[in-house]
Known about the structure:
The protein is mostly helical. The protein is 61% helix and 0% strand.
Amino acid sequence: MSISSEDEQSLTEKIAHLESQLAAARVGLTQACPSPPSILPQPSYKHHLLLLSDSALPLGSFAFSSGLESYLAHHPPPSPRHPPIPAIQPFLSLALQTLATSSLPYLLAAYREPGRLLELDEEYDATVLCNVARRASVSQGRALVMVWERSLRQSCVVDEERKDHGDTEERAVCREVLMGMSIQLKKAPPSSTATSTSSSMDEAQVVGHFAPLWAVVTRALEIPIHDSANLFLVNHAKAVLSAAVRASVLGPYQAQAVLGSGWLREEVRRLANDNWNVQVEDAGQGVPVMDLWVGRHELLYSRIFNS
Length: 307
């Protein structure tokens, strides 16, 4: 079918007109519905931070009440007519203060110098006077080593393109120290204690306390030191409040209200700031009565927690 030159020119003009209309329509659609902004890649440590903040992290923290069960036995909660949150806040504040004054300095020291992990682990063991608290710390520390070895170590691989990164060597030290700690813990009996009288660190029997191990693991995962310390305190608060729920002192919504409160945020911030520059030589039990509550836990007639 042949068409005249006039018809061909008319069709060409019509096509050009339709194409210009289509282009204008596309511009209008783009202006009316702009494309979503591209999602920037997040630092890998944020992913690890979320993993370590998960209540399902298999550390066995649910088995310990950090002295809450003994505290409740010696200080029965008020009548049901009174709100339970004010009753639990004093103990939670003391529990966090205990952790901040006794464990946080060792956590910060191990983070800043991961090569001293074995030394700090032994020194921390010598400072823990309450056997019940010591048992809880060792249990969670060894569980963290298992989590690191079986789950987190695979995700902690140094990128070849970042060899010049100033912190790469420190992360390599963290991995080596954790590997050595894991090997020595496997050789040690479950009830081992760091009571070796040898002056050589190589001959000293490792224990595996939670605080210094937490520091080195978070350093290996590139989690900043401030986030590592804050998460350590917040996780302890979560464990205490979880124990309070299972002990029927708080309801689950009330426990979440405490976790989300400005009071807890300010308490964690204050304790971290107050103990930020405390040396391990000056660390100690800031609330001596906590050792009494935790230590008397084994004397309770009936109990549902291990500490």
